Fold this sequence. Notes:
alpha/beta; eight-stranded parallel sheet
Amino acid sequence: MVTMPRMLKRRFLIILILPLVVFAAGVPTAQIVRGQSAAQESPERDARMRWFREAKFGLFIHWGLYAVPAGEWKGQAIPGIGEWIMNRAKIPVKEYEQLATQFNPTKFNADAWVQMAVDAGMKYIVITSKHHDGFAMYGSKVSPYNILDATPFKRDPLKELAAACARHKIRLGFYYSQAQDWHEPNGAGNTWDFGADDKKDFDQYLRGKAEPQVRELLTNYGPVCLIWFDTPRMMTAERSQRFADLLHTLQPQCLIDGRLGAVGDYRSMGDNSIPQAVLKEDWEVPATLNHTWGFKKDDTDWKPPSELVFKLVDIVSKGGNYLLNVGPTAEGIIPQASQDNLRAVGRWLKVNGEAIYGAGTTPFGTELGAYSETEKDKTGKPVFTVSEDWRCTIKPGKLYIHLFRWPGKTFELHGIKDTVERAYLLADPAHKRLAIMSSGDTVTITLPAQPPSEYDSVLCLATKAAVAKR
Ligand code: JFZ
């Protein structure tokens, strides 16, 4: 038996189905999402969600002034995620603002970034247009605190990215921190300069900056596939609805992620959190390649491609999307290790993408893991152990068995109701037929001695209807 060299560094987190995770900074994460229940499904919504449901894999980009300090302030390494440095080090606005004068990412090349996403097999890109630090990474007329007006760079990277995305036919969406804005006296989050949030005129900030900036993003950058709102502090249903109305008016096709507030088109999971089981609704996991979103010079603990492929397949087999992040440097370069690892995933997808894009969820479930009969967590609940041997994705007439651990001479699958008519490996260009033996609802496939793919060898089983018994 060959064991793949996967996930050696990390044990899988035990992941919760419900987003109970509360972020270290105290972000409330109750994520109330619009349009997920069957009752709210409609042909209109189906059409709007179609690209998202087919895409499966996207590129997240966290890029802003925080790339300049890159995790270090006044000679001190600041713990935590890089884009939170202003908050973690309690940097006064007047000091943090000065970073803009140093921000000159002359090596930024929109085409190169987009090409990398394409090479990685990604179908959409989501970039920070304004993170919690309040700095707009595009030319904004609403506030001079933006990359075009406040830096020596004097370019609008979002304009350049929008043009490059159009050329490469890949969708573009914008992250926008609607509630936290540490630059504004009335924005949420900056208590070190401006005092407690509950004393602020939050609606003044929303109406004066956040709403008009979202309007700009939806007006000046062509079709926007989604707006990725975040950390909905103080976002009442009414306040959330004002953003939703803007979207529905300006770009009715544009999706809303799960972190606006009371409305959204899909559920955003906790960062790096993969549910244990198949979810019927639409969902996405935002995830890091190392441990930070914004660039940090001392975070070089990269997840290997084997782990990225496993997570992508695991997520797709449960019905979700994987939004994987890079944190470019202050020069405008995506770290080389990020590029290398993403391109390795892309090479696997070139061969096996048929089993990912537009694929459906597993009809089985036993392969996902199980609750331990003996081990209990601190609260006395049985521990869920994730199994990592195989996963299943489907298309009409096809079952794709993703083999992460080569099972040896044969693979045995239980619970098959339909007749398997043909079996072959996706990585075999000739699609040579593998021997099939059936007995009751068990089918046994004879495999070659060695796995054809390094990370995940995909066994395709062609059935009459691909209806497998649960
Ligand atoms: C937020 C941001 O604060 C962070 O900087 C980054 O942009 C990330 C993608 O999103 O952090 C969160 C928000 C929600 C959860 C975790 C981290 N959550 O629901 O578990």
